[in-house]
What does this fold into?
Amino acid sequence: MIESMKKYTFLVLASRYDAFLEKVREAGLVHVTLKAEGLAEDEHLRQTIADADALQRLIDAGAPEQLLNERNSVAQKIEATQKEAQRMAVWGSFRSERIAELKAAGYDLHFFTCSKKVFEDKWGSVLANDGDTLYCVAVTKRQGEAVVTLDGEPFVMPEACNEQTLNEHSANELMADVEALKGLLAAADARIEAWGKANLETKRAELAELRRSIDWQKVQLSSDSAAEGALRLMEGFCPTEKTAELNKVLAELDTYYEVEDPVEGDATPVKLTNNKFTKLFEVFTGMYGWPTYGEFDPTPILAPFYLLFFSLCMGDAGYGILLIAFGLLVYYKKLNIEMFEGLGPIITTLGVGTLVVGFFLGTAFGMDLSALFPSIDYLFLNGKVMTADGVQYLTKAQYAASGLEGGYDVAMVLALLIGVFHICLAMVVKALCYTKRFGFAATLGTWGWTLLIVGGIASLIICMALSVPMEVTEIVLIVIASISALGIYVFNTPGRNPLLNIGAGLWDTYNMATGILGDTLSYIRLYALGLAGGMLGGAFNNLGLMVMGGSTEGATWQWLPFIVILIIGHLLNLAMSALGAFVHPLRLTFVEYFKNSGYEGKGNLYRPFAK
It folds into this structure.
């Protein structure tokens, strides 16, 4: 939920303004309204921000640019030398000193490549070949600057040949150079590490001080001058429950201030207060955007549905056990992985949900639980079919033997029903929230759609459950549709031309007709992802059994590949399933739910000016 806020307006003598800010910062209760126009114009603030950004880059890099450049230069030399060694490998092993001795004696070595079709023996010796390409070497003797002829004719490269300009070092010599460069690279890494140990903590402290300076300057610049500069006017917000504490501080300062309730249009920050379970999922709300003060906190609804969606997408009780174990290891810092830091509790919670939902779906590590526990087969939804002949659930084998037609997979129907309920809940939330913000009269169009869809579905379910005659059900639905039509087409915007209201209602009808159906069908992904993960897990199980000869009674040597296949296969499946189970519930929340609930997420989180 969103905590209640109070808006404060402070009037302070300019001469006491800095002292006033220091006391406010010590209290740590006021979220100051920042004025963008003043911040953008201040050169000192811009320079401080630039210094902080530069220091942040230095900390992220872990060393000054000079040390990093030295290290990168060595790394580039290693890469280039390795490539040169690969290029020279085809010419075989030789010593560069011997080539130097030949040159001193007046002999030149010519390395060249040539097509096998045009090569002549008199051109030189073939060292290697690669398909149609020959790698050759020729030796010539120099007399001054003139080239001595071979076989009585001047040695000239034929047009079909391409002379190769090569480093006169063999591949072995170049790889020796690589090893020497690796030593330099290790030394450069050691210098970077030493610098980090000696300086990073100090630099982090400097960065923290710069951040505090930036906060101070932003607040200092976010006041207006009054009485020809003698007074400073500042605006801020404080949680209602903290106002008594703030008022006590202000009384000691002898400062004039006014307190009032925020109104629509104020830059009121939001402070979320949720229980331990719901608070775990606030990170997802922040990923989309924090609510404005007049909106609702979507986290209490997001939390249980995200847990359910994630669990359905995973759909495997065995993977739930692995997630629980992983989350606990992260929480107790037995596994120190930076990207999962602080996420141990939510991973464990998602693992528990996956374990419970996966059990009732009837899948664990790709195995069908209904086959393992036939005595409690009725608990598992996996493999169940809901027939069109009344509401009855049959296994697929029973359904095939019954001769019935028009059956539906229970898990798929469940996913669609969850989607219908989720969207209906979103529409009710939208109607209630808009009524609170804008008044009932301004939201008659929203209430019309809510009554038509939510009321229509609820009425139909009640009539079916109570076996109400079809004629009465039709009358109820017609009354609901008629009342809804008034809100949708006539009173959607009070005070506007009725013809414009009708046009707007028709446009809304088109959007709702094309949107609601697509939104509902999107929830099939809950069924499809769980089914895909289960099938892939079963495929790895079958692959392992194939290695074992189709049973678990294979030879001793067969157990090793069997275990390797199962471990690698299920870890890969777990990783892919977890990725899908993370992304798709977010999509169902951010698109289908938030769109139909009218959630905007353009608010600012409460961040008090504090030390």
Summary: The two ends are 26 Å apart (CA to CA).
